[in-house]
């Protein structure tokens, strides 16, 4: 039997079995290459077509942190484990025999040949590319099993966003998530967490400054618009912040600050330096600590828990200081005696700021009887110094202790006051300090503070009112040519009783020019207010105070006792103010000559005025009574006589001053609100003065005690003491002689300077002295750049943004300030917010409806009516109280209205009285929304300031618009930028080249109630609007000036300057020739070359400017040359222009 076939068969079977076993023991590289050959495998084709590929996912966290609170971001280093089945990579072995096959370890090169799901972290910042692509950073490794399962591990770093709960910071709980999302749609790829341990981390894993609480796993489908659902996995880690860092850096130090502040309980009240140093150190440390903590957080518009904690120590400090002031009483009360010569003498007379002469109580009167003649005692308890008035030099003579009365003009009918019942307190200015405890004394006029110029003064006393007499008025009266009837109430021919600022009205005065027209027709300005102005009948003198007052009607008084009201007396070319007192009827009539003079000034044929205590003042013009001119004696009111266009009258009843306050006449609530605010400011300023007085006294007393210890005080006292016999020399001619000699000396030096400046000289060190002076002057007081910042008020208006901190010094001021803040922010601000929403919504909606109407008279009428209504509503957002003067000069169709520019609310203020077509710079944001809404309803012109094409097209559109008389007048602000309402800068000539009629308008704001200036480089428009809505009010005056036209032969620049001068004069603004765009741009090279040329002309120069410089200078525009001639001239005849050169 032949067994060879069977043997061969068995051998072949054995060989085949052994070969198969060797092949299936390992997944070799040859197998991988055969499986991924391009002919049989494509990485762009999904493993399955009938259903989605399931991707099993897990995460391994390697490191967490740091966490950035300012960006709300965290950094995590992790491994992403992915697994799926690709049957194309499986061998021919069954699944049960998988354990017999060794998987294939693949590197990145192998994995790039396989199909991979497209995944990315959806909450990463920035978004990473495809996690498994070759461009994605990180390491990637994998394994392929015999059944076709692909396992890939991606090691990478992710920066994710994590929402921060700032309100609870640092006590917040964070929820930081890792979101893994598929780029392919859900029908192709489905992501799921593995069932065993989807999130793992090493045992020594550190969460940084957080405690791990829990983690949450989510798997969901997310849909995008017009795309479809996608699969996403999300792991949320719940973390709580560790407080150890904050305990060491914030909480513990703040507790120590509070404990340190308790030491103020043991600090004596007069020891002001110790308390101030302690408070400042504590507050500065609080601020620094709070700022360091907040710098790490994103900007938020609400308070977080750390702010609350930081406020508590600050509030505690304030409570400590308040309790200190209220409940701790000094153990001793010391009184010091000083001679009167120490207070009023030749050396310090010009430094006296305020004085008070009042009645003393019985106890003080008894004490004063025991004091030496001319002595003063200081009561440390109330901080007031009392002077025994026994001998004081005045213009009326000497008051002595031997007489029991103060002798004054008997015509006034003043009562007799015993001298030993008068109290005198004195305050000196900051430039003068006495060694003794006498600084910070006060002068009151009708129980209101009075700022008074330095100079010689005389004192007077009446039962309820006190007044002062500046000697320079009497000096002018002796030199003038007025008749004796001008001074009906006088003791001597050379002196009249003059009251400058009785009662509260002086706080409302800002600027006053008093003018009388003499028979020769020359207008004379006859009175000055301020230490630097002098009296001259041929010079213009401006009365500088707080509020503008136009005085055009001046009465002459009858020969009878005057005991009520306030008025001015004139006779041709002399003018004084008279002070009356109430309770007796007053009749004011016009003498025949004075009435004729006034009627000629007012251009009327008949004028009569009578005043009684019961009814007020009644005025008739041309026989017609003016009912609106009747004064209510129960409250102060102001009326404008509309029928007399060239004159404005302001009259009040009682001992209050007449003034034209910036109040609205349409609603009584507006005037009542403004009046009460003025009274509140008055009271606040009174309290501030008392606080400053007390601080100055404490500071001076400490300084004196330190000097006494050093052995210097006695020497200084002896140098300042002057005998009683020399007191009258302060009112003699010696001081006047010194003033005249000083003026003469300055005159000689000025003449010499002018002669030297006209001579040519060689270049030496002295040639640059003038430029050095101008440079230093520019550093000290730059008159240009300060126009681009909010001007600080001299008096506190109870607003925090004025950088005054008086509410920390007095409990009463603190109560007023807190009450005002609550009123403004929690009552007025919500109401104004609702009004703003209604106004803006109404504007946008009605403007859209008007835009649908075809152009024509109906559309113009609707826009005219609606625009005035819009802006009247919007003006109530900031409680606008607007006074319009000379409304007959309003702009008309075809004309151009030009005004000085302070802020965008200028548009709303002018629109409340008329409708305009606006021309201005394009804006974005909220202001841009309003611009686009207005442009849809009317022909407004918006342009880009720095685009030449826009500027050229604007000129053409202005010309076409002004030629159509049916269109609205154009409103332009030629300055091109916002100025802080203290000056008027260069007008651009574009609007003055059109040839249309120009209607000038002057706008003047009262910054006491709220500063309307918009510093666009510092605040956005929304923040600016909020500041306006939280101010007290926006009070302003608007003057419509007569229309102006370009004269024959007058250039556009000259015409613009002429209009600017009129606006500046009417609004009481400083006129500057500088371009307002210096706020944003550098000085033009042409201006620098003009300065170089003028300097070269002032010295003997042998070199000649080359053709290039000559050509550059010759190409200077007319506007630039005109500006240079106005604002950079260095001629000796124009001192004001020298100040401009500094900039």
TrEMBL record:
Alphabetically ordered keywords of this record: Acyltransferase, Cell membrane, Disulfide bond, Ion channel, Ion transport, Lipid biosynthesis, Lipid metabolism, Membrane, Phospholipid biosynthesis, Phospholipid metabolism, Signal, Transferase, Transmembrane, Transmembrane helix, Transport
Molecular function in Gene Ontology: chloride channel activity; extracellular ligand-gated monoatomic ion channel activity; glycerol-3-phosphate O-acyltransferase activity; ligand-gated monoatomic anion channel activity; oxidoreductase activity, acting on paired donors, with incorporation or reduction of molecular oxygen, reduced ascorbate as one donor, and incorporation of one atom of oxygen; transmembrane signaling receptor activity
SMART domains attached to this UniProt entry: PlsC (SM00563)
Pathway noted in the entry: Phospholipid metabolism; Lipid metabolism
Signal peptide: 1-23
Coiled coil: none
Family: Belongs to the 1-acyl-sn-glycerol-3-phosphate acyltransferase family.
Name of this protein: Phospholipid/glycerol acyltransferase domain-containing protein
Lineage, uppermost ranks: Eukaryota, Metazoa, Ecdysozoa, Arthropoda, Chelicerata
């Amino acid at each position: 039997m032949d067994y060879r076939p069977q043997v061969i068969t068995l051998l072949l079977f054995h060989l085949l079995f052994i070969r198969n076993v060797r092949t299936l023991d390992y997944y070799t590289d040859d197998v991988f290459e055969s499986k991924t050959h391009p002919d049989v495998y494509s990485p762009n084709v999904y493993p399955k077509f009938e259903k989605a590929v399931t991707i099993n996912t897990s995460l391994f966290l390697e490191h967490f942190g740091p966490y950035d609170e300012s960006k709300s971001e965290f950094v995590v280093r992790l491994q992403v484990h992915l697994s799926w089945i690709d049957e194309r990579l499986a061998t021919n072995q069954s699944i049960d025999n998988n354990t017999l096959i060794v998987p294939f370890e693949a590197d990145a090169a192998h994995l790039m040949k396989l199909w991979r799901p497209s995944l990315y972290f959806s909450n990463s910042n920035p978004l990473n590319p495809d996690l498994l692509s070759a461009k994605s950073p990180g390491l990637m490794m994998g394994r392929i099993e015999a059944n076709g399962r692909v396992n890939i591990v991606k090691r990478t770093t992710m920066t994710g966003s994590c929402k921060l709960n700032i309100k609870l910071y640092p006590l917040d709980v964070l929820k930081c998530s890792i979101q893994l999302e598929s780029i392919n749609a859900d029908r192709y790829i489905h992501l799921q967490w593995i069932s065993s341990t989807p999130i793992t981390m090493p045992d020594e894993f550190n969460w940084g400054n957080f405690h791990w609480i829990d983690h949450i796993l989510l798997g969901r489908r997310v849909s995008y618009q017009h795309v479809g659902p996608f699969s996403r996995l999300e792991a949320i880690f719940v973390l709580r912040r560790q407080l150890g860092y904050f305990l060491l850096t914030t909480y513990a130090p703040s507790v120590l600050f509070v404990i340190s502040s308790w030491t103020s309980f043991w600090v004596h009240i007069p020891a002001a330096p110790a308390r101030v140093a302690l408070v400042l150190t504590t507050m500065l440390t609080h601020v620094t600590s709070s700022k360091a903590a907040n710098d790490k957080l994103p900007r938020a518009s609400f308070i977080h828990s750390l702010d609350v904690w930081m406020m508590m120590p600050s509030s505690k400090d304030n409570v400590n200081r308040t309790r200190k002031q209220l409940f701790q009483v000094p153990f001793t009360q010391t009184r010091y005696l000083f001679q009167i010569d120490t207070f009023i003498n030749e050396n310090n007379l010009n430094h006296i700021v305020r004085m008070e002469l009042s009645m003393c109580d019985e106890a003080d009167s008894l004490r004063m009887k025991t004091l030496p003649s001319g002595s003063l005692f200081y009561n440390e308890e109330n901080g007031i110094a009392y002077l025994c008035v026994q001998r004081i030099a005045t213009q009326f003579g000497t008051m002595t202790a031997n007489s029991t009365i103060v002798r004054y003009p008997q015509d006034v009918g003043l009562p007799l006051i015993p001298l030993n019942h008068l109290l005198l307190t004195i305050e000196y200015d900051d430039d003068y300090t006495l060694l003794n405890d006498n600084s910070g004394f006060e002068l009151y006029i009708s129980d209101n503070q009075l700022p008074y110029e330095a100079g010689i003064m005389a004192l007077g006393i009446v039962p309820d009112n006190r007044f002062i007499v500046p000697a320079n008025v009497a000096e002018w009266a002796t030199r003038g040519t007025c008749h004796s009837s001008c001074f009906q109430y006088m003791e001597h021919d050379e002196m009249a009783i003059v009251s400058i600022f009785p009662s509260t009205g002086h706080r409302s005065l800002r600027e006053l020019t008093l003018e009388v027209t003499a028979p020769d027709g020359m207008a004379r300005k006859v009175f000055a207010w301020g230490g630097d102005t002098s009296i001259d009948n041929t010079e213009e003198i401006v009365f500088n105070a707080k509020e503008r007052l136009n005085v055009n009607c001046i009465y002459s008084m009858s020969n009878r006792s005057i005991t009520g009201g306030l008025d001015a007396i004139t006779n041709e070319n002399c003018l004084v103010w008279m002070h009356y007192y109430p309770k007796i009827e007053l009749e004011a009539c016009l003498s025949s000559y004075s009435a004729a003079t006034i009627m000629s000034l007012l251009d009327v044929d008949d004028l009569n005025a009578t005043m009684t205590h019961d009814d007020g003042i009644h005025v008739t013009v041309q026989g017609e009574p003016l009912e609106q001119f009747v004064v209510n004696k129960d409250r102060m009111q102001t009326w404008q006589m509309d029928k007399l266009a060239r004159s404005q009258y302001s009259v009040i009843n009682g001992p209050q001053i007449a003034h034209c306050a910036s109040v609205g006449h349409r609603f009584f609530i507006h005037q009542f609100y403004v009046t009460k605010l003025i009274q509140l400011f008055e009271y606040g300023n009174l309290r501030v003065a008392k606080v400053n007085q007390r601080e100055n006294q404490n500071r001076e007393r400490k300084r004196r005690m330190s000097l006494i210890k050093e052995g210097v005080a006695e020497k200084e006292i002896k140098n300042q003491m002057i005998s009683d016999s020399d007191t009258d020399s302060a009112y003699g001619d010696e001081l006047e002689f010194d003033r005249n000699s000083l003026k003469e000396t300055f005159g000689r030096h000025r003449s010499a300077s002018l002669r030297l400046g006209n001579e040519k000289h060689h270049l030496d060190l002295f040639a640059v002295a003038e430029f050095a002076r101008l440079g230093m002057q520019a550093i000290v007081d730059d008159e240009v750049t300060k126009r681009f910042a909010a001007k600080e008020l001299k008096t506190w208006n109870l607003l925090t943004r004025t950088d005054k901190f008086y509410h920390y010094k007095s409990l009463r001021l603190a109560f007023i300030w807190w009450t005002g803040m609550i009123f403004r922010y929690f009552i007025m601000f919500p109401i104004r917010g609702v009004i703003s929403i209604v106004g803006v919504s109404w504007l946008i909606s009605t403007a859209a409806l008007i835009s649908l109407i075809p152009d024509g008279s109906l559309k113009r009428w609707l826009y005219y009516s609606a625009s005035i209504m819009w802006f009247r509503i919007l003006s109530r957002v900031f409680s606008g109280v607007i006074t319009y003067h000379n409304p007959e000069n309003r702009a008309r169709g075809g004309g151009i209205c030009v005004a000085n520019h302070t802020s965008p609310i200028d548009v709303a203020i002018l629109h409340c009285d008329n409708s305009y077509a606006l021309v201005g710079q394009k804006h974005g944001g909220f202001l841009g929304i309003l611009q686009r809404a207005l442009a849809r309803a009317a022909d407004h012109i918006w342009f880009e300031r720095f685009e030449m094409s826009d500027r050229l097209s604007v000129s053409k559109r202005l010309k076409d618009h002004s030629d159509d008389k049916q269109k609205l007048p154009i409103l332009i602000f030629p300055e091109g930028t916002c100025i802080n309402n203290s000056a008027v800068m260069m007008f651009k000539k574009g609007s003055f080249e059109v040839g249309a009629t120009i209607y000038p308008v002057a706008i003047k704001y009262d910054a006491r109630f709220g500063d309307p200036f918009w510093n666009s480089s510092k605040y956005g428009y929304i923040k600016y609007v909020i500041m306006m809505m939280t101010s007290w009010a926006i009070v302003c005056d608007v003057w419509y000036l007569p229309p102006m036209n370009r004269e024959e032969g007058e250039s556009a620049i000259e015409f613009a300057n002429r209009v600017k001068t009129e606006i500046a004069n009417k609004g009481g603004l400083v006129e500057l020739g500088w371009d307002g765009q210096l706020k944003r741009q550098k000085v033009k090279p042409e201006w620098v070359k003009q300065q170089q040329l003028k300097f070269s002309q002032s010295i003997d120069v042998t070199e000649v400017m080359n053709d290039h410089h000559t050509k550059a200078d010759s190409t200077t525009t007319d506007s630039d040359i005109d500006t240079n001639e106005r604002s950079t001239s260095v001629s000796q005849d124009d001192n004001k222009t020298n100040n401009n050169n500094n900039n």
